[in-house]
From TrEMBL:
Polar residues bias (residue ranges): 203-212
Keyword tags: Signal
Name listed for the protein in its UniProt record: ABC-type transport auxiliary lipoprotein component domain-containing protein
Sequence segments annotated as region (Disordered): 203-238
ABC-type transport auxiliary lipoprotein component domain ranges (all copies): 37-194
Keyword Signal found: yes
Top-level taxon: Bacteria
Length: 238
């Protein structure tokens, strides 16, 4: 109801009803604004830097996220099977985008590489493709922030691949700022495991081509992908 309609109708109601109606309108207009959170932590350094070309590149694909938390509103739980969707506490973008953006920044910094997903890169450069499937993204205010993810790294040139699992559970204090900080720490732990995986794959030698006789019309075929063991801080995917 607009104010004009309200005051027009107010002439036909008792004064007590008029006061009650005005109070109701004031209550509606004073609802708390939504707060927005991000997993990307800016350093505040505005200095422009131009870096040397990277020795290799990353292709971090979009992150998969459980459908029940794939929304801007925070979804929290208290340790039971019941969850709450918080309208006033929201992510700045979808959680999958928040996790991917934070992972990309962490991996680029830890490895000295560039994430070129969806971006042209020099031909012949070493490229490592990273895929992350978050199977659990749990938020328990005052208790914990948990990320359980299966991830893989594949070398484009050496055809080496590994698939691992990382479970990162961080205790958090009261408040949503602490909860978001806990999720950021969980992403940092996940990035550390993936960085170790990239280093493992990058150290694998390139496969040799299968030999063929001079009379054979078939071209040499590359060896099949080689499965590598997970690094020490990650478990094999189940």
């Amino acid at each position: 109801m607009s104010l004009a309609t309200f005051f027009k109708a107010a002439g036909r109601v008792p004064a007590v009803g008029l006061v009650a109606g005005i109070a109701a309108l004031a209550a509606c207009s004073s609802s708390p604004p939504a707060r927005f959170y991000t997993l990307g932590g800016g350093s505040g350094d505005s200095t422009v830097r131009t870096t040397a070309p990277a020795s290799f590149y990353l292709e971090l694909a979009p992150v998969d996220m459980p459908p029940q938390v794939a929304k801007n509103q925070m979804v929290v739980q208290d340790g039971t099977a019941q969850v709450r969707v918080l309208e006033d506490q929201r992510w700045a973008s979808l959680p999958a985008d928040e996790v991917r953006r934070a992972l990309s920044a962490d991996l680029s910094q830890q490895l000295g590489a560039i994430d070129v997903y969806g971006t042209p890169h020099p031909d012949g450069a070493a490229v490592y493709r990273v895929k992350v499937n978050v199977q659990r993204f749990e938020s328990s205010p005052g208790k914990r922030a948990l990320i359980d993810a299966v991830w893989s790294v594949r070398g484009v040139s050496n055809q080496a691949v590994l698939t691992c699992r990382t479970l990162s559970e961080q205790p958090v204090g009261d408040g949503y700022d602490a909860l978001v900080a806990g999720h950021r720490q969980a992403v940092d732990a996940l990035a550390g495991a993936i960085s170790a995986g990239v280093k493992t794959v990058s150290s694998a030698p390139a496969p040799s081509m299968t030999s063929v006789s001079a009379k054979s019309a078939k071209p040499a075929m590359p060896a099949p992908p080689r499965l590598l063991p997970c690094p020490m801080n990650a478990a094999p995917a189940q």
